[in-house]
Amino acid sequence: MAYLNVNNQSLYYEDHGDKEAPVILFMHGFLMSSKMFASQVEFFSSYRIITFDARAFGKTKWDGKPFSLYDTVSDCMAILDHLGIEKVILAGMSQGGYAALRVALRFPSRVQGLILISTSAHIDSEEVKTGYREVRDTWMNNGLLPELHENLMTGIIGPKDGNECHWNKWTPLWQERTGEQIFHAMNNLIDRDDIQSFLPDIKCPTLIIHGDQDFGVPFSMGQYLYQNLPNTVGFIKIEDGAHGAIMTHAETVNGTLLYHLENHLLPELEKQD
């Protein structure tokens, strides 16, 4: 648990596990923080697991200025450089997946493999962007209103019934987010660039994880990545999994991910060495 002062930010990161093992860096989704990967940090203790909080979320001390996914790319690389890590497997969930794809495009020699969770290479439709702007402006002007909270929590975590522990964990953390933080974090998503045409340039082996009840980033987006990235090595479909399935279905995800990691992703990396 430490801070790295770089890029005019104070980035909060954690470095867990076996320092001699393969490195997996997890990148969290919108409204989340590195805390969302607590189960993975514990389960994959035989690996070296890195997490960090993106700007405007978690414990990272953000400078208050607008930022883009490419700033997250720079933050990610700064942490890797600081830790002396030359090669990494990037695991990105939603917003973190958007950034992970862009790291792979900008720094292909540094990214050994990708694990893309509940994410997409697409930009959002104008209808979706309009909805995001409504969320952004409501939070900015009125705070996290009960109806907004319920809609966002249901969309990310799933219904409260059966997911109370996750609702209870994230509600106070969301309430700490200021309107300004949400405004710039949401713009970071709304204004992202279209990278679909660049997918053939991502040659590293890639594993896709997606819940079949994900309405935040539809399941078809995961299928698109699986079909259009040139070196996909597996697709983990999470039955009844919503957007945050890596948290709500952690037991299923972790075991299946370990199997694919050790039987498909890592052997593919060994072929390339």
How would you describe the overall organization of this protein?
The chain is α/β, with parallel strands linked by helices. It has one domain: Alpha/Beta hydrolase fold, catalytic domain (Rossmann fold). Helices cover 45% and strands 18% of the residues. It contains ten helices and eight strands. The protein has an eight-stranded mixed sheet, with helices on both faces. Strand 3, helix 1 and strand 4 form a beta-alpha-beta unit. Helix 2 crosses helix 3. The protein is globular, with a radius of gyration of 17 Å.
**What's the CATH C level?**
Alpha Beta
Q: What's the order of the H and E elements?
A: EEEHEHEHEHHHHEHEHH
Please give the radius of gyration in angstroms: 17 Å
Distance between the termini: 32 Å
Whole-number count of domains: 1
How much β-strand is present in the residues?
A: 15-25%
Helix content: 40-55%
Number of helices: 10
Average residue pLDDT: 97
User: How many beta-strand runs?
Assistant: 8
The order of strands across the largest sheet is: 1-2-4-3-5-6-7-8
Briefly characterize the structure:
With 273 residues, the protein is α/β, with parallel strands linked by helices.
Mind sketching the topology for me?
Layout: E1 2-6, E2 9-17, E3 23-27, H1 38-43, E4 48-52, H2 69-83, E5 88-93, H3 95-106, E6 111-117, H4 126-142, H5 146-156, H6 164-175, H7 179-190, E7 206-211, H8 219-228, E8 232-238, H9 245-248, H10 250-272
Parallel strand pairs: 3-4, 3-5, 5-6, 6-7, 7-8
Antiparallel strand pairs: 1-2, 2-4
